[in-house]
Amino acid sequence: MKKTVVLYPGLAVSHLVPVVQLADALLEEGYAVVVALIDISNEQNIDFAAAVDRAAASKPSVTFHTLPRIKDPPSIAYDARFILGYFELVRRYNKHLGELLCSLPPGSVHAVIVDALSNEAIDVTREMGIPAYTFFGWSASALAASLQLSLIPTEGQLSFKELGDSPLDLFGVPGPCRPPVSSMNSSRTRRARYTNRW
């Protein structure tokens, strides 16, 4: 029996495409690949639905599985609280992800690889004793910034408000790409702390 790797991408084309590329590499290494998808309607994200359809049509050796739709899914508004709503959506799909993992042949799941914004799913794999990994399919600068945001500001340091418009000094992030501190809102730093808790 082939070992299976379950991939759990984020809900944007820019998160799906790198995961599908990872699926190709896993297939070359001899793994069976299942891509678990949160059920979002075409009306909510037409581009994502079209990208999933294209990927499924072009990758017949990859199993694409849409998790059953949850009751009263939270709407995700693209505002300052977007990321918190996104985490809530992923968390509410944990039960269905667990059901999918249980439905696969016993002992066949080698690992689950979740998108960096879907770390809520790691709770499911931890409970089931399945190794899980976070996949960060963005640039190295974005990874460096994401990892460091969880550490700032810490107690005894100036707050973002006190730092004003000075550039945020992040190791590994080129000078011209450094955002001004004033662009960092509290929900972004809470998200970074929460995302990096593992």
UniProtKB/TrEMBL annotation:
<protein>
    <submittedName>
        <fullName>Uncharacterized protein</fullName>
    </submittedName>
</protein>
<dbReference type="GO" id="GO:0035251">
    <property type="term" value="F:UDP-glucosyltransferase activity"/>
</dbReference>
<dbReference type="InterPro" id="IPR050481">
    <property type="entry name" value="UDP-glycosyltransf_plant"/>
</dbReference>
